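Our consortium's second objective concerns turning raw sequence data into structural hypotheses that experimental partners can test. To show how far this objective has progressed, the report includes one record in full. It was chosen at random from the queue rather than selected for favorable results. The single chain below, 366 residues long, was entered without modification.
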Amino acid sequence: MKAILSIAYHSLKNHGPKMVFKRFYKYAIVKTKRVFSKPDLENIEKWKSLKGKYEGKRVFVIGNGPSLNKTPLYLLKNEYTFCFNRINLMFERNGWAPNFYMITDDLVIRDLEEEVNTEILPNVDYGFFPDIHPYNINFQKYVKKRDNVLWIKTDKPGFTTNLPECGINNTVVNAGLQIMAYLGFKEIYLLGVDASIAFTAHNTSTENNRELTSQADDPNHFDPRYFGKGKKYHYQPMYEMVEKFKIARLFLEEQGIKIRNTGYDPQLNAFERQNLLDVLNYDDKTKEQLFLETVAPGTGAVSFNEFVKDAVHITEVAAFDPNADKVYITGDEGVKLVPKSILTHVPYGPFNGSYVLIKRAEPIVL
C-alpha cells in the first residue's frame, strides 16, 4: 500500500489529477478482474518448475542502449543472457539468441506483436510477460500461448521473490532482475543499461504525458530502427530509473546475489562497476574464435586477418562506400558507422576496437 500511495503522490505531482484518476481507474478494473478470474494453474506450475533452476550460475542482463555497439556481444555466446523488447534486431549480429526475454510496456507489445511471436519466442528458452498490464491491457491478446511463455502479475510496485508477482519499477530491467533472482542466479552482470541517454532529444510527439510516438530514427538505442518512426513507447526519466536501480541493488544483495555493471556506459553508478573482459577472462585466441563463429562460419577463415583481407579498409565514416561488399573500419569510427550503415550492411564487432560490415543481399527499406 505504501508503494502504491507513493506512486499516486508522484503521479499527482508530475501529471496532474486527470492522469492519476485515469491510471487508478484502470488499476481498479484490473483488480476487479483478479477477483473474478480463476487461478492460472498451468502458469503457476511453470513458475514452480523454474524456482532455483539455475542456482549458483551467472547471467548477463542486457539493456538496449547505444553502448551495445561498443560491446563485443559475440563473447557471450556460451553465457546465460536475458534481453528485452527489440533485441531481435541484434540477432543477426550476435550469432546467438538470449535464453530469457521480456516485455512489460503495453505500447511496445502492440507494436512488436508479430516480431515477438515469429522472430523471438521460437528462439529463446523462456519469455516473460504481464498477463494483464496495470493499465488494463491484456498481453495474452498479443502474445501467443507457448510452452516457453510465462505470465507475471505486475499489479503491485516494489521488489519481491514471490513470483509470479513482479513489480515493473519504472523499467523492464528491474522486472527482469527479480526473475533472475527467483531462477537462482547468484551473479548478475548488466550490459547496455545506459544512464547517459537523453530520451528527450529524440524527435517524438507526446500523447497522454509519457506516451511517446517516434517521428525519426532512434538515437537512444543500439539501432536507429529500435524505436524508429511510428513506434510507440512509454518515456521514463532516467533519474527515476536510477533511483529504482539503487533499490534493486539492495534487494539483490539481501538475496545474496552479486550484481555488477559491466557495460560500456560509465555513467550508471547505481551498481559497482567491473570490466566485462575481466569477468569473461578469455584469451585472445578464444575471442578471435568466438568472433569467427558468429561472422564467418563456412567461409574457411581461420583468423581475423584472413577474414578481412578482401575487405575495403577505411579509417573514417566519411570514407564509407554503401556499395562495398565488405568494409573493415578501425577505431571509434566503426561505432559511429554502425547506425549510419545498418540498412545496407550487417555490422560485426567490435573486434580489437574494429568493425567488419558485410553488405546485405537486399537493403532494408523502412
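The partners drew two points from this record. The mean pLDDT is 89. Residues 1-37 form one domain. Both points have been shared with the crystallography group to help prioritize constructs.
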